Amino acid sequence: EAAVRADLVAAGCTLQAVKAQPGRHSLTPDGTAKWNTDPPTSGPHFSFNPNGSVGTVIWGAYDEPVQLARVIHNLEHGGVYIFYGDQVSDQVVARLLEFYEDHRNGTVLAPYPKLGDKIALGAWVTDNETGSESTGGTGYLARCSGFDEAAFSSFLGNFQFHGPERFPSDSLLPGGT
Fold it and tell me: How far, in Å, CA of 79 to CA of 131, rounded?
């Protein structure tokens, strides 16, 4: 965490580390929750419906906001998100998309309007080697005033694929759940 924090601070970002909330599959499609970060990095989220719907966000890049209670499920599986506010320039969004293209597995890129001119990176990390428990760990939320490839790479390189329910990185493919 210290090295990631140093990389982010050098790039003009902040890093918030909070105790992860339990990852209960308790929300219904119209449910809401109180999370301990905004955007959220852990906590209650959607489960899969019997027909396979809801559950997670399909891994990929979006030009519309995604449902937070679905993204948390992605984080639980070891993924990360890159969210950007509605005042982030088109030029920076294009750079984020280029970065995403090199980090597609286990990544969701989407707008989150209330960030304004900021970019956020989120991950849910546990020390659990098997990744079989959806409790404990740390929610990491970086907020950045701009894009810095080295700092973003440090965040993903250290926190991605370490969620409470671990899936191999090659199974978190764009277009999949």
Answer: 13
- Evaluated on CA atoms 128, 50, 40, 167, the torsion sign reads positive
Long-range (24+ apart) CB contacts under 8 A made by 66-71 are 66/108, 66/110, 68/35, 68/39, 68/40, 69/27, 69/31, 69/32, 69/33, 69/44, 69/45, 70/45, 70/46, 71/39, 71/40, 71/108, 71/110, 71/122
Looking only at Cα atoms, what is the longest distance across the chain? 46
Which token pair is 53? 């719907």
Q: What does each C-alpha distance from 93 to 6, 8, 17, 97, 117 come to in angstroms?
A: 24, 19, 25, 6, 11
Which single residue is written with the structure tokens 């109180």? Answer: 34
The whole-angstrom separation of Cα 124 and Cα 27 is 18
For residue 162, give the amino acid letter.
H
How do residues 38-48 score in pLDDT, each as one tens digit?
999 998 887 77
pTM: 0.92
Q: Contact, 15 vs 48, CB < 8 A?
A: no
